[in-house]
Amino acid sequence: MHISEGILSAPVLAGGAAITVAGTTVGLRKLDWEQLPKVALLAAVFFVASLIHLPLGPSSLHLLLGGLVGILLGWAAFPAMLVSLALQAILFQFGGLVVLGANTAIMALPAVACHYGLAGLIRSQQRSRVLVAGFLAGFLSVLGSALLAGTALYLSGEAMLGAAQALVVAHLPLMGVEGVFTAVALGFLQQVRPAMLYGEAV
Predict the structure, then answer these.
(1) Please, is 1 exposed, middle or buried when counting C-beta atoms within 10 Å of its C-beta (0-12, 13-18, 19+)?
(2) What pLDDT, in 10s, does the model give residues 157-191?
(3) Which domains does the chain have, with CATH numbers?
(4) Alpha-carbon gap, residue 48 to 28, rounded angstroms
(5) Which residues lie across from 54 on neighbouring strands?
(6) Distances in whole angstroms, Cα of residue 101 to Cα of each of 52, 56, 190
């Protein structure tokens, strides 16, 4: 969900940058350096998944994996997504460096919210609840990111209201796809690498 440069207003850009700086600071402070390979792996997964996208007006439609990253990383989702989005902006001109803070905040805030909101279901270690948590994480992370992106567009000018509404509507099918994908991924991890799922997030 890359918002292109030249779309958002200066106050929205500043707000997004401030949120990203704060979130990244918290993520780095809470980061256990033994967890760094896990963070790097998920940053790479997020990077690759986000490369496959379809243009959608001022934004784009693609697999996000915010719920999966959020569940497994917690606050470390901020630095992981920041690095991935920065590399995409530099190497492939997706989004841009000027909107990097806003794009990171749009993606990482719902991811972190899913981590803490669904922690109880995950910690139960009951397979059915883990699958439900996975679906909700995938669904809600896309919904949250779409709503944040739409809000950012709207706050940048009422003329962007139509684009904001179109962005949210266009991501509705992706919410279900992400939910199923994340549920399957967490169910798989529970079977083969439970330590990755139940280990301490950052």
Answers:
(1) buried
(2) 877 788 778 888 878 888 998 999 999 999 999 99
(3) 10-198 (1.10.1760.20)
(4) 22
(5) 61
(6) 21, 20, 33
